[in-house]
Design a protein that fits this description.
The complex is a heterodimer.
Chain A: H1 2-23, E1 27-33, H2 37-50, E2 55-61, H3 63-71, E3 78-80, H4 84-92, E4 102-107, E5 109-114, E6 135-138, H5 144-155, H6 159-162, E7 166-169, H7 172-180, E8 186-190, H8 191-196, E9 201-206, E10 213-219, H9 226-237, H10 239-247, H11 253-256
Parallel strand pairs in A: 1-2, 1-3, 6-7, 6-8
Antiparallel strand pairs in A: 3-10, 4-10, 5-8, 5-9
Chain B: H1 8-37, H2 43-55, H3 58-69, H4 74-83, H5 91-115, H6 119-127, H7 132-161, H8 164-170, H9 180-189, H10 193-218
Helix pairs in contact in B: 1-5, 1-7, 2-5, 3-8, 5-7, 5-8, 6-7, 7-10, 9-10
Classes of the chains: A alpha/beta, B mainly alpha.
Chain lengths: ~260, ~220
């Protein structure tokens, strides 16, 4: 009898844990690059308004870990990355539906310093100055912003000499936080990130990158809400979605780089 | 991240955990003795405060440390102005984080060990003419030693595995503040499974060696 009682309790527990899954209406899980955090939250809210009963859930992180999660079976419906490389890998592994893939925004990489910084940093070579002790940079292995920054620094032969100063961040937003708190004297973020912490960081220089920074979006192949996922992608690409993204400082992918994929 | 497996994270982890455990040991044992022997106002409250790092999420500790020791904090600014030193993004910061999470383990077990020492044995030594310091060194400490060592061992294990608070205060800088747990995190995030496998094996073997050898150390020899 006692054993039966335990089964009963376990049953209740299982029900309590599983019940919410069935009870709710459709949920859409969007895995999106960390730099999209603020813009996509607003887009998600709008999408929910125009799609009653739909709940949009976001998973924000660097594009590298997002790709790993999807590769390992994370139940994502939409993948929005900050670089082509992550999406290319996803496509090679058939993790996304190729014909839903599209570039939806362009961004620019900038060098930021704390707003109250007294160290004159105007260009990349200034980072070698003694006063700049720590440089926040996304981990190039997983964070697209870090990869772009690495490319730009390598082009000026600055990557090697600056290596001892680097503090690697898990996402571009962590690099931003390091600079905003003044723990790092400079950092590499997108111009859209700098706009979020306007009172705490200032843009010191535009960072020239070899390839334009274009964000791709696609439906995840394993999505169980494929139709809804496509609708979300379509909304992001629509003029209404583009207008919202522009409000957060993102540029249109065609505006500056016509003809790219 | 494709280069050969570097053992730097292992040495750094042992160094950080070793120093952190030493700090936790000295402070933890001293406090345990005080709490076990002296009654004072707010003792229970302070005991709870000292145990807090064991219960609080490491991220909360990390945030406290940033607020307390960061470059914008009073202490942080003083350290930077006086010694040109900062805990942020340095291995010393990792030591602070590890010592704080390790402290409750030493403190709790040492306090229980001191309280478990039979007072009659100490009184016997006193009756036989021993002065207080001698009673402590020759009677109390040997009797409490096993509990203290067990706590210290757990403290070392906890310090070795510290991740959250360390990441927040010391950052993840390869070759400087990247401990083993962070190297594993990095490798997994980047999908570098072969590196992750190597590191996980290194950690597991190291921990087993430590556990077995300290278990031998703690077994009473009659």
């Amino acid at each position: 009898m006692k054993r039966m009682g335990h089964f009963w309790e376990l049953g209740c527990l299982a029900f309590a844990l599983l019940a919410p899954l069935g009870a709710n209406a459709e949920e859409l899980l969007v895995s999106a690059a960390a730099s999209l955090t603020n813009a996509f939250k607003q887009i998600g809210a709008t999408f929910e308004q125009t799609h009653p009963g739909v709940k949009v859930i976001f998973n924000f992180a660097a594009s590298g870990p997002l790709l790993q999660q999807i590769a390992q079976g994370a139940p994502a419906d939409v993948f929005a990355a900050a670089d082509q490389e992550s999406m290319d890998k996803a496509q090679q592994q058939n993790l996304i539906v190729a014909d839903t893939r599209a570039n939806f925004v362009a961004n620019r990489l900038v060098l930021v310093t704390p707003a109250d910084s007294t160290v004159p940093v105007k260009a990349l070579p200034d980072l070698t100055k003694r006063e700049v002790k720590r440089i926040a940079i996304g981990n190039p292995a997983t964070v697209p912003a870090g990869r772009y920054a690495k490319g730009a620094l390598e082009a000026e032969q600055l990557w090697e000499p600056l290596t001892p100063k680097f503090v690697y961040a898990d996402s571009v937003r962590q690099a931003l936080a390091y600079v905003a708190r003044g723990e790092a004297g400079a950092g590499f973020v997108y111009v859209t990130d700098a706009g979020i912490e306007q009172d705490k960081v200032k843009v010191a220089a535009e960072v020239p990158v070899a390839t334009p920074i274009l964000y791709p979006i696609a439906q995840v192949a394993a999505s169980r809400n494929a139709a809804l996922a496509r609708e979300f992608v379509a909304y992001v690409l629509s003029s209404a979605g583009q207008k919202q993204l522009a409000g957060f400082g993102f540029a249109s992918p065609e505006a500056r780089y016509a003809g790219s994929r | 991240m494709q280069e050969a497996v570097s053992l730097a994270p292992l040495w750094l982890t042992l160094k950080v955990a070793g120093i952190a455990t030493l700090i936790a040991f000295l402070i933890g044992v001293a406090l345990a003795l005080l709490f076990a022997r002296v009654r004072f106002a707010g003792r229970d409250f302070l005991d709870a405060m000292l145990t807090l790092p064991m219960v609080l999420p490491p991220t909360v500790l990390g945030y406290y440390l940033i607020v307390l020791l960061g470059r914008r904090s009073v202490i942080g600014q003083w350290l930077e102005a006086t010694f040109d030193f900062t805990f942020i993004f340095t291995w010393q910061g990792a030591v602070i984080a590890a010592a704080i999470v390790a402290l409750p383990l030493v403190f709790k077990s040492a306090r229980a060990a001191f309280e478990g020492v039979e007072p009659n044995l100490e009184n016997a030594a006193r009756v036989l003419g021993s002065k207080e310091p001698k009673v402590f060194v020759r009677v109390t400490l040997p009797l409490a030693m096993r509990g203290i060592l067990a706590g210290t061992m757990l403290a070392f294990a906890r310090a070795m595995g510290e991740f959250g608070a360390t990441l927040m205060i010391a950052g993840n800088i390869p070759g400087r503040t990247q401990t083993l747990s962070m190297a594993v995190y990095d490798a997994v995030q980047a999908g570098n499974d072969s590196l992750a496998n190597m590191l996980v094996i290194i950690i597991s073997v190291t921990c087993i060696v430590i556990l077995v050898s300290s278990g031998k150390l703690l077994t009473p020899r009659y």
